[in-house]
Fold this protein.
Amino acid sequence: MLQVNDYHVAYGRSEVLHGLEFKLNDNEILAVMGRNGMGKSTLMQAMMGVIPSTSGSIRIGEEDISRLKSHQRVAAGIAFVPQGRWIFSALTVEENIETALAISGRREVPEDIYELFPVLREMRRRRGGNLSGGQQQQLAIARALATNPRVLLLDEPTEGIQPSIIREMARVLKRIRDERGLAIIVSEQVVSFALDVADRILVLENGRIVHEDLRSEVDEDKIAGYLTV
C-alpha cells in the first residue's frame, strides 16, 4: 500500500531522518515507536507534506507522492491526524467533519463514521472546543476518515487521553482496518497501546530505524528498553 525509500528529512542543514526504508502492507497497522526527539513526528509530518523531504520517495501503490503538496496527498489517499488533534474549536462536531468531505465528493457525514464513534453523533451540534480530550481525538480521526483515505497516519494519538479511552481507541482502529481495509501508521510511545493495536513495530532512534518486528514476535522488554531514557 505504501513504500518509503531512502527517505531523508532535514531542518536547514541539520538532517533529522537518515535514509529511512520501510513499507506498509494492505490492511496493516504499523506502530512507529521511539523516545521524544527521535524523529517520529518529523516522519509523520514529512509523509503528509507538512515539512519537505530532502531526498528519497514515498509511494502509495504505484504513485510517487513525494513532491505533492499536502492537499494533493490527501486527494491521493493519505490522511493525517496530527499530534494535538488540531480540530476547529469554534465549529460543531458535524461542521468539523464536513470540512473534510470535499475531497470525497460527499455532502453529508457518512453514517458509518457515526457508527464508529457514537458519542460524536450524540454531540454533533456541540462545539469541538467543548469536547473532552478523548472526544476531540475521536473527532480528529472521524474528520480524517471523511476524506475516504487508503492510508491513515496518526501522530501520538494517546497523548493526554485517559486509559479507558486509549483501550477503546485501539479497538476502533482495528475495526477501521478490518472493515475499511485501511493501512494505518501510528507513532507512539505507550508500549501497551502499540502492542495492543499494531501488526508490526518499528523503532526509531536518532532518525534511523534500529529495530523491526512482527507483533507476534516482539520482545516487550527489548522494545521498552529502546524507550527508556
